[in-house]
Amino acid sequence: MSNELAISVSDLTKQFGDFTAVDAITFDVKQGEIFGFLGANGAGKTTAMRMLCGLSLPTSGMANVAGFDLYKESEKIKRSIGYMSQKFSLYEDLTIRENNRFYGGIYGLTDQEIKEKTQFMLKHLHLESQADTLVKALPLGWKQKLSFSVSMIHDPKIVFLDEPTGGVDPITRREFWTMIYEAAHRGTTVFVTTHYMDEAEYCDRVSIMVDGKIEALDTPAALTQQFDVKGMEEVFVKLARKAKRSDN
Amino acid sequence: MESAVKVERVFKNFQSGKTQIEALKDISFDVGKGELFGLIGPDGAGKTTLFRILTTLMIANKGNAWVDGLEVVSDYKEIRKRVGYMPGRFSLYQDLSVEENISFFATLFGTSLEKNYELVKDIYVQIEPFKKRRAGALSGGMKQKLALSCALIHRPSVLFLDEPTTGVDAVSRQEFWELLRSLQDQGITIVVSTPYMDEASLCDRVALMQDGKIMDIDTPKGITQKFSKPLWAVTSADMYQLMHDLRADERVDTCYPFGQYHHITFAGVNQEIQSIEKSLVDKGHTDLTIQKIDPTIEDCFMELMNQ
């Protein structure tokens, strides 16, 4: 992990009418860090994440993502980040190779680059024999791992993962986290949300949002100590019990 | 104990293009009256298909099943009067209000909210302040409570809940399970599915499902007692390196990250804790701890997956 900042946010706020979805949040994420972005349903995680990805303009506050200003350079931000979620991943009726060509093309890779990336990815995931298989025919666990690789086809500085392991079997869930560790070791910043509290323990640092505000931010070990409990599950429950809002 | 649900050698196949998908392969189990029974497994395990067969919405290719002593094919009309079903996807009328949805489902079963108020009270009071709101405009948690109220409105004898807590945060999940316990206290048999392994311990008995098969059925305690080997939890200052070093060690059979710990089992019978500890220290690990622990349902699930 370097000292360079991948994300720098100060007083970032988003209002919808008189509802403050995100309420003046301030935090930094270092390059190469695995940053867990936790919160109860309706705490404002998705809204905050949409802003950081350049998909929604803040009402006020400042943010710099991958070295670019959120207000003036959102298109550059989109090119420098990767995104995957359980809901949005690959095109089911395209093959693995076609998905790679599609996403590689979107991010402006050359044909040669796409070819090399695809070969590397298939080898790494042991999916060489499946290159021309439709994505919908793959087991969910493979889809999720593949989808994570495709989200990084353009070597983004930051990858945003929104509940990437939902519904996945316990072995695949751990293989997925091994891939996250590997990406971070290569220097990619990983910004991840999850409802599995054991996964919160795998993050370098974790923030917990309650009712639009960041109520806690530190390493899992420090948070566990600060709240005088055994693990992140209890930290989360202590904080989220206070929430007044609930939503999905 | 009398059975509320009985499933005997059920198979279900689907055709998807040229390939045949075996969604359920020889499923058998019983749920006792008044029991809180969990189907635990990831997406694609076959949980939803099983629910559809039991709620008479789908017919098995082979095998048979009974709900409340009634056969799911020949007695489907009677079963539909007696069961409550909350599907995984929100399936109420989005453009009807909260109270309109409730009264619609109550009317279908020839009852009313007033008649069964006691049963749904604990849940309904939480959504009552929004009773004029369209269901489509409710928050996720509120939708879930409305769906549960509608599934309960005719006082079913068996309640089927398909992944009610998926995508729900840890606090709301705890609250939901407290609700299930209180429904069970009122004599309702509950069959609930979940991909969250930690929720298994909240059921009376569970079936662990994977790829259309039941890997084991037992009480949560019974399942964890069957874990085949001693289990150890290991930590060090560098957990990522620790995982690599443990997995590279021939004496280690399995090593999986579990939150703050890595859970490991040994290949041989003799557990050479001291020598493992020494070789990890030699590799430069600091703050090393190794302790013997009791397995969780998730440890058991993974062991069964590997068999």
Q: What is the number of helices of chain A? A: 9
> Rg of chain A to the nearest angstrom?
18 Å
Order of helices and strands of chain B: EEEHEEHEHHHEHEEEHEHEEHEH
Q: Into which percentage range does the β-strand content of chain A fall?
A: 25-35%
What would a concise description of this structure say?
In chain A, the strands form two sheets. In chain A, strands 6-7-8-3-9-10 form a six-stranded mixed β-sheet, with helices on both faces. Chain A has 248 residues and is of the alpha/beta class.
Task: Describe the protein's architecture and organization.
The complex is a heterodimer of chains A (248) and B (307). Chain A has 9 helices and 10 strands. By secondary structure, chain A is of the alpha/beta class. In chain A, helix 3 (96-106) crosses helix 4 (111-124) and helix 5 (140-151) packs parallel to helix 6. In chain A, 47% of the residues are buried. The mean pLDDT of chain A is 93. Chain B contains 10 helices and 14 strands. In chain B, strands 6-7-8-3-9-10 form a 6-stranded mixed β-sheet, sandwiched between helices. In chain B, strands 2-1-4-5 form a 4-stranded antiparallel β-sheet, with helices on one face. In chain B, strand 12 (252-258) and strand 13 form a beta hairpin. With 307 residues, chain B is α/β, with parallel strands linked by helices. Chains A and B meet through helix 6, helix 7 and helix 9 of A and helix 5, helix 6, helix 8, strand 12 and helix 10 of B.
